[in-house]
Design goal:
Length: 52
């Protein structure tokens, strides 16, 4: 995540993933093959938001 060079002060970060291409948001049934963050990536984003 550090390699993304998200500048300080940014209030919103949008990520485009394969979930969009696969149109998972339009499926009625939950699809367990969704793309998500690993624990360390999610923690990094959480820590970044605390420093703003």
């Amino acid at each position: 995540m550090k390699s993304l060079y998200i500048p300080k002060g940014v209030k919103r970060v949008l990520f485009r993933t394969l979930n969009t291409d696969r149109r998972l948001m339009w499926k009625k049934q939950f699809d367990t093959s969704y793309v998500g963050f690993m624990n360390d990536g999610a923690q990094w984003l959480k820590d970044l938001s605390k420093s703003l």
